[in-house]
Design a protein that fits this description.
single chain; alpha+beta; 66% helix; globular
């Protein structure tokens, strides 16, 4: 009876709070939030933010929601309280566990320090350093396509800074962040090694924790740390960043995580989405053609420049002779 009363109280609190998630399906950080909400058994509204076709994350309405123009974002409006806006997945995890009233608790108070330390260790990793290195090594043509797309996005942000003067400072800050991001991850591989080490260290840490676990989870009952580990492994597996063959306990955990109802409810995937595969295949084909013909085009341009230079030289000599004849007369 006591448990039934607690569940009814949670449902009542949930009804009194409106949760809106600004989502983008493939985002690893949006996946974390969706999985958290599924495990907490919380209902919520969702607004997909179209990155690819519409670049909605750069539109003014979303810049007002999240000046960083990233996903996920979340707004929470509880009865009798001011609306809360959260613009970072880590902040969402903390808020939903510590401040939001309702749903299943995913942190054991006796183990909260270790639980949050594991979560923070994950958030110390910069996944994009691995993401771009993967294409740098395996598909340079796709990396070039992504660089071109990023350049176009910077142009969109520059245009919006002029188009929407009330948001000019926000857009200029975004441009600054985008250029720093490009330099750190797209143009350089320096960030790869330290971030790969952090990934390996965290997977090793999980293996040790799970080896001694009686429940099959990191810190006793299923927790927010298990949420982040599940999504991290899904990301690593999808891009072939790590093998679990020598991590039997992590492999067992991951297989069990995929069978939980929350995996499907949160739409977690560990394969590259079909839409992205098609985009990558087309992009790779185009950029391979470009890479093949550009040397010939450049060679042709050099030859054309040489011919033009010779014509110019001949014309100059002829002009000099003509001028010379004219002067002698």
């Amino acid at each position: 009876n006591e448990n039934e009363n607690e569940n009814e109280n949670d449902k009542e609190k949930e009804r009194m709070a409106e949760v809106l998630l600004y989502d983008h399906g493939p985002s690893p950080f949006a996946r974390i939030v969706r999985l958290l909400l599924a495990e907490k058994n919380l209902g919520y509204k969702k607004r997909d933010v179209d990155y690819m076709a519409k670049s909605e994350h750069f539109e003014p309405w979303y810049a007002h929601v999240n000046p960083k123009m990233q996903v996920p974002s979340m707004t929470v409006k509880a009865e009798g309280k001011d609306k809360v806006t959260l613009t970072d997945s880590h902040d969402i995890l903390v808020y939903m566990e510590k401040d939001f009233e309702g749903g299943t608790a995913l942190v054991d108070p006796r183990k909260q320090r270790d639980t949050w330390a594991f979560v923070d260790a994950f958030y110390d990793i910069k996944p994009m350093a691995l993401f771009y290195q993967n294409f740098r090594d395996k598909s340079p043509a796709v990396l070039e396509m992504m660089k071109d797309m990023h350049r176009k996005w910077v142009q969109v942000v520059e245009g919006n800074a002029e188009k929407y003067p009330e948001l000019k400072d926000v857009y200029l800050k975004k441009k600054e962040d985008m250029l720093a991001y490009r330099a750190a991850y797209m143009e350089s591989s320096d960030a790869f090694a330290p971030n790969k080490k952090k990934v390996d260290d965290l997977v090793d840490r999980a293996e040790e924790l799970l080896k001694d676990s009686e429940t099959g989870f990191l810190f006793g009952d299923y927790s927010v740390a298990d949420v982040t580990l599940t999504c991290m492994l899904a990301m690593l597996v999808s891009f072939g960043f790590c093998s679990l063959e020598d991590k039997p306990n992590v492999a067992k955990f991951y297989n069990a995580a995929k069978k939980r109802p929350s995996w499907k409810a949160a739409d977690i995937q560990d394969t590259i989405p079909l839409k992205m595969k098609i985009m990558m295949a087309v992009g790779s084909f185009i950029y391979k053609i470009k890479a093949a013909i550009m040397p010939k085009v450049n060679e042709g341009m050099k030859e054309a420049d040489k011919i033009v230079s010779e014509i110019k030289e001949t014309a100059t000599e002829s002009l000099d002779k003509a001028i010379g004849v004219s002067q002698s007369k």
